[in-house]
Amino acid sequence: MVLGIGKFLSAVLCRALNARYFVTVAPAHRAELPDVGRELLAVAEAAGLTAYQCEAHHILYQAALAEADFDRARHHVDRAIEEATTGQLGLILAVM
């Protein structure tokens, strides 16, 4: 697959944000979770990177659960499932 430079750079940023997510799930950094999710979603949507949109909704789902906002959590679960590719769906559903 050949990507334009803008989409390539967006994909690199999405990978970096995805890596940052793994730091934010630690209790000491959990407050950063919503920011990481929102930034990842914005970049992924702008670039049309559905796999990262799915991951962003997964992150935002976790942030909503941490705030006991079940309606928002449900919204993000539904969106994550909509955006999931076949390879991601099992992983996303396993942790939701």
Helices and strands in order:
Layout: H1 5-24, H2 33-47, H3 50-66, H4 70-83, H5 86-95
Helix pairs in contact: 1-2, 1-3, 2-3, 3-4
Summarize the structure in words.
This protein is mainly α and 96 residues long. 79% of the residues lie in helices and 0% in strands. It has five helices and no strands. The chain has helices spanning 5-24, 33-47, 50-66, 70-83, 86-95. It is globular, with a radius of gyration of 13 Å. The termini are far apart.
Categorize the overall geometry.
Answer: globular
Strand content range: under 5%
**Computed Rg:** 13 Å
Count of individual helical segments: 5
| Overall strand count | 0
- Helix coverage percent: over 70%
Q: What gap, in angstroms, lies between the N and C termini?
A: 30 Å
Order of helices and strands: HHHHH
Average pLDDT rating: 88
Largest sheet properties: none
Structural class: mainly alpha
Task: Describe what is shown at a glance.
This protein has 96 residues and is mainly alpha-helical. The chain contains 5 helices and no strands.
List keywords for this structure.
96 residues; mainly alpha; 5 helices; 79% helix; globular
